[in-house]
Amino acid sequence: MRFIYISIGVLAVALGVLGIALPLLPTTPFLLLAAWAFAKSSPRLEHWLVNHPRLGPPIEAWRARGAIPTRIKIIALATMSLSLLYILILSGLPVIAKTGSGLILAACATFIATRPAA
Q: Above 80 in pLDDT, residue 96?
């Protein structure tokens, strides 16, 4: 089981680092996933990640206050809004799929907007 958690953590760190450069790929959720996986499998890797100068601060902010940096909140909410516009206007999805997508995105946006700012 330890190997599985380490593998999840390594993959999540890789995706999180890619998310720094790719605007539509989220960074912080992947880093939080990696921290969780490393906490279950390798205290050394968890310590490295949490104390990393670039990757660690969002994890610490989340653990301490459930906080999301304001810049990240704005990017996430804008991306979700654009995604919803695309789904509603340009996609050929059935109305039920558009409604479901809208409800899911609204729930996620509400969660993000109500978190404290880091």
A: yes
